[in-house]
């Protein structure tokens, strides 16, 4: 089990959070669950990183937060992506795919002089 | 960090309690959800709780991580430093008060003087593109490079027609006119100008319009532009004043516009200049001021060169009038501030020195306090406090002092500015622009920060360095004290040196001023009353003025009870303005062109010199019969000495206007008066009686002079009544005693003097306090040693001598440095000094004595305290 948990590449946590919130507003727990589920349990978001990251992104103006009732009538803090957050998401997605592509090229050995 | 992020962080920092609670809630929710998950997966409630807590990890760590985001570290540190500083400062109220007094005095003086400099020197003139504005003068290079004169109408027209360097050139004459009114007639300060005058300045009227082209031609309807002051005073700022008619000098003028006060605060009205035929053709009647706007593509040098070419052509064409004459082009901005610039810069230097002394004093205080805090600092350093952190804390302390000092200083400057502007209103251009504005406040803020760092850094650095190394080991005490002592000694030496420089400057000015006060104007101002009598050119002419107005006025004022004698003259002594012209004494060699002798011309009456207390040295005074028969003049002693050395000038002929002028007979010689000011030597003078047709021409303003037997103020109502009974339309104005006239001529110097002396006194007090502080500190420090000395049999006198010697050494070094500095710096004072040289030995001796006395007093008090030390207590002191 432990070996299947993957450390996130630096900077990817912000990307994942923004992507998750781009669909619908969610609370911290929901964000962690969403990432876990979609990555089929490969990516586990550490709560110790999640909440500081949420606060930082809120201060940067990428997220807004407000308290709402959940479906089970519990109070939870819901995070919403802002316009400037969406802009960030776009940039990060492009940057990330470029990074993956570059890593892929290195791993497949193509294009090099070999 | 973006600005938004920083802003949000500050906001979070403020509501961090609430954020804390919210985070707690968020965590709880998260944990509950995790527990629910585990329960759903079949765990017992207890196990689920345990698993949930485990999964959420170290809550404290998480909280700390998040909280770090809610603070701005340096801001938090700063807040802590400020709190700490407030606490320590509160514990030392005397230190704080003394430091704040020093800073308030230093910064307040700087604020006030900088406000004046900002308003007068730094702000551009309130005209369009003021750098392009110039004044044009007639110059006579052979009389000296600085010789400047007024311009004649034909020359002005030729300059205007032939020059290409200017986009507009206008001429004007300063004067005054009577505003007729059923309520109260008033004498207005007017400018008579060519129609394009306002175009040159490029300033628009606030109401209506200014002169249209051609409105200055003869035969046009009279128009007038009002100044804002007059408009508010007499017309209640009514915009419908346009098209109204006012009566100036007995003639109707239609009001066409109002100029804002920012354009000119001193002029009441502007009217078009229509030269009378005599002046329009006479190239030797030089009476106008010429201004022009330089084209933007022409440099000042090019404009000057072009004008000199034109002048050379004119001199060739009109050799009789123009030989030896050229043109000088000068920037208006330079001219408007030239008279006050040196004095203001000297004052700025003086307040700068005061501030330096104040800073040195505060640094001294801080050093003394640092000595007391050495133990505290050592412990904090030993416990691991960072040195930079401690230095920063000391700086916060000194900056807080300087910021509060600056705020108090700004208040002081504000209160000082009121009287200062009143005092200076006659001498400074644009006094209305002087005030504490944003730029002055910015200057003060910079001064505050610079002074805070300057006087806080040295003690902070020294203290932390010394304390860190040695203090706790006890051995360091001597070294630490030694280095401190040297630094404090150096500060005191510096303070004394700066005070000496200031004192010498002040004493030089005072000495010069007393020389001026002792300078006789050549007259006796005691019980002499003067009053200007306005003469409207429209209402009297050359043939009616004397018989219809002046004769009866003189007759009636001479009949006022309490009046001993009375007369009239066209211009009083000690005036800034003067009126001169050529003359020639037959028999003298024909003068070279451009070097004709010139004399001051006055129109006067019998008894005016007797009333002023000016002696008649030879011959006789004017009589009522003069002006009808033989044409006669009085000359003064200066002219007599120059041309009639040894011979009696009485009965000799003098040509007025030069070799081809009009012959007059000299009937009397009067004593010299200082016509152009107490600081200017008497000039050659020729007086023509007002009963003569020449004397009466151009007499637009006469000054009545009354020698009274009673206090002068008592005859004023009778004087007004006497003039009104002759002609109610010609008011008298500017009624002053002769003493007031003399005082007014010195107001500029007096202002400099009062300010510089005040600053020097403040400096002396500050440095005396500094010296006192240092010696007191030395006494405390050496208490133990003194105790031993006394125990071993030293007498009180010996102890006092020991301590005083240290004070004397410090002040002696400071005094020597200060004297050397003063000799070097006082050169800059030359332009404002009169009657003394900048190395006047008496001044230097006086200051040395004064400073020595103050230094000994400041040392004596703490030193005599040392002598009373009880050996027992002293030896236990440590």
Using only C-alpha atoms, the radius of gyration of chain A works out to 16 Å
Oligomerization state of this entry? heterodimer
Query: What share of the residues of chain B lie within helices?
Result: 40-55%
Overall pLDDT metric of chain A:
84
DSSP helix count of chain B? 29
The average pLDDT of chain B is 84
**Widest sheet, order of strands of chain B:** 3-4-9-6-8-7
Largest interface, with counts of residues having CB < 8 Å to the other chain, equals: A-B, 19 and 27 residues
Helix segment tally of chain A: 4
Indicate the structural class of chain B.
alpha+beta
Tell me how many strands of chain A there are. Answer: 3
Shape of chain B: globular
* Distance between the ends of chain B: 54 Å
How would a crystallographer describe the biggest sheet of chain A?
A: 3 strands, antiparallel
**Biggest sheet architecture of chain B:** 6 strands, mixed, barrel
User: What portion of the residues of chain A fall into strands of 2 or more residues?
Assistant: 5-15%
Query: In sequence order, what are the helices and strands of chain A, one letter per element?
Result: HEHHEEH
- Low-confidence region ranges of chain A: 1-5
* Strand segment count of chain B: 22
The strand line-up of the biggest sheet of chain A is: 1-3-2
């Amino acid at each position: 089990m432990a070996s299947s948990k993957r450390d996130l590449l630096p900077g990817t946590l912000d990307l994942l959070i923004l992507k998750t919130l781009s669909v619908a507003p969610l609370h911290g727990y929901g964000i962690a669950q969403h990432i876990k589920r979609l990555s089929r349990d490969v990516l586990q978001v550490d709560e110790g990183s999640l909440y500081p990251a949420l606060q930082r992104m809120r201060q940067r103006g990428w997220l807004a937060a407000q308290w709402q009732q959940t479906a089970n009538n519990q109070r939870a803090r819901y995070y919403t992506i802002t316009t400037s957050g969406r802009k960030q998401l776009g940039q990060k997605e492009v940057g990330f795919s470029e990074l993956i592509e570059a890593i892929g090229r290195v791993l497949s050995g193509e294009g090099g002089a070999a | 960090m973006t600005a938004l992020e920083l802003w949000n962080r500050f906001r979070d920092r403020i509501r961090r309690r609430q954020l804390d609670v919210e985070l707690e809630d968020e965590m709880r929710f998260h944990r509950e959800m995790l527990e629910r998950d585990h329960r759903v997966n079949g765990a017992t409630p207890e196990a689920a709780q345990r698993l949930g807590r485990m999964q959420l990890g170290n809550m404290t760590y998480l909280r700390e991580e998040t909280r770090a985001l809610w603070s701005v570290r340096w801001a938090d540190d700063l807040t802590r430093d400020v709190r700490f500083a407030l606490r320590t400062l509160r514990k030392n109220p005397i230190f704080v008060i003394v430091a704040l007094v020093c800073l308030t005095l230093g910064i307040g003086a700087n604020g006030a003087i900088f406000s004046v400099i900002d308003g007068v020197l730094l702000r551009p003139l309130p005209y369009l593109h003021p750098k392009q504005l110039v004044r044009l003068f007639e110059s006579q290079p052979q009389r000296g490079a600085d010789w400047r004169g007024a311009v004649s109408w034909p020359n002005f027209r030729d300059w205007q027609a032939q020059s290409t360097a200017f986009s507009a050139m206008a001429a004007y004459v300063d004067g005054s006119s009577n505003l007729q009114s059923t309520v109260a007639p008033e004498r207005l300060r007017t400018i008579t100008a060519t129609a394009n005058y306002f175009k040159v300045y490029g300033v628009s009227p606030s109401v209506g319009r200014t002169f249209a082209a051609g409105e200055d031609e003869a035969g046009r309807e009279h128009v007038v532009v009002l100044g804002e002051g007059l408009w508010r005073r007499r017309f209640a700022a009514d915009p419908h004043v346009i098209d109204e008619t006012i009566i100036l000098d007995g003639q109707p003028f239609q009001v066409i516009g109002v100029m804002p006060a920012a354009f000119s605060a001193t002029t009441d009205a502007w009217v078009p200049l229509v030269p009378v035929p005599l002046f329009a053709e006479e190239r030797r009647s030089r009476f106008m001021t010429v201004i022009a706007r330089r084209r933007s593509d022409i440099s000042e040098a090019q404009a000057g060169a072009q004008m000199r070419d034109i002048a050379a052509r004119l001199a060739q064409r009109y050799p009789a009038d123009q030989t030896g004459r050229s043109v000088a082009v000068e920037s208006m901005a330079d001219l408007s501030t030239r008279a006050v610039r040196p004095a203001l810069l000297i004052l700025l230097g003086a307040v700068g020195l005061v501030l330096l002394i104040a800073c040195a004093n505060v640094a001294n205080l801080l050093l003394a306090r640092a000595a007391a805090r050495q133990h505290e600092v050592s412990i904090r350093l030993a416990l691991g406090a960072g040195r930079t952190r401690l230095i920063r804390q000391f700086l916060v302390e000194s900056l807080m002092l300087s910021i509060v000092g600056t705020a108090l200083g700004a208040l002081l400057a504000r209160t000082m500015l009121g009287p200062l502007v009143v005092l200076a209103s006659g001498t400074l251009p644009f006094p209305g622009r002087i005030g504490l504005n944003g730029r002055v406040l910015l200057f003060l803020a910079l001064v505050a920060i610079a002074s805070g760092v300057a006087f806080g850094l040295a003690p902070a650095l020294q203290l932390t360095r010394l304390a860190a190394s040695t203090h706790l080991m006890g051995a360091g005490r001597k070294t630490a004290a030694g280095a401190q002592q040297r630094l404090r000694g150096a500060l005191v030496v510096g303070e004394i040196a700066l005070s000496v420089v200031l004192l010498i400057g002040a004493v030089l000015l005072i000495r010069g001023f007393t020389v001026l006060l002792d300078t006789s104007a050549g007259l006796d101002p005691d019980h002499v009353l003067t009053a200007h009598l306005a003469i409207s050119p429209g209402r009297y002419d050359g043939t009616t003025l004397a018989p219809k107005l002046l004769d009866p006025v003189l007759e009636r004022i001479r009949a006022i009870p309490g009046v001993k004698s009375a007369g009239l003259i066209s211009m009083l002594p000690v005036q800034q303005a003067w009126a001169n012209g050529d003359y020639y004494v037959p028999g003298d060699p024909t003068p070279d062109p451009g070097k004709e002798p010139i004399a001051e011309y006055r129109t006067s009456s019998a008894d005016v010199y007797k009333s002023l207390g000016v002696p008649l040295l030879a011959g006789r005074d004017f009589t009522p019969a003069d002006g009808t028969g033989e044409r006669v003049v009085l000359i003064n002693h200066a002219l007599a000495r120059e041309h009639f050395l040894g011979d009696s000038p009485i009965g000799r002929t003098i040509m007025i206007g030069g070799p081809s002028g009009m012959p007059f007979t000299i009937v009397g010689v009067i004593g010299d008066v200082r016509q152009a000011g107490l600081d200017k030597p008497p000039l050659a003078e020729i007086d023509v009686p007002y009963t003569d047709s020449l004397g009466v021409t151009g007499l637009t303003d006469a000054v009545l002079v009354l020698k009274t037997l009673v206090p002068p103020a008592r005859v004023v109502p009778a004087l007004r009544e006497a003039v009104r009974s002759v002609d109610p339309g010609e008011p008298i104005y500017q009624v002053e005693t002769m003493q007031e006239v003399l005082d007014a001529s010195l107001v500029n110097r007096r202002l400099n003097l009062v300010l510089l002396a005040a600053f020097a006194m403040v400096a002396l007090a500050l440095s005396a306090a500094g010296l006192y502080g240092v010696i007191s500190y030395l006494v405390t420090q050496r208490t133990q040693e003194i105790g031993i000395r006394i125990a071993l049999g030293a007498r009180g006198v010996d102890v006092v001598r020991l301590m005083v010697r240290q004070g004397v050494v410090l002040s002696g070094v400071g005094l020597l440095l200060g004297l050397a500095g003063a000799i070097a710096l006082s050169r800059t004072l030359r332009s404002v000094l009169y009657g003394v040289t900048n190395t006047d030995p008496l001044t230097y001796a006086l200051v040395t004595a004064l400073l020595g006395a103050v230094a000994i007093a400041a040392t004596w008090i703490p030193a005599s305290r040392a002598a009373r030390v009880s050996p027992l207590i002293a030896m236990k002191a440590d």
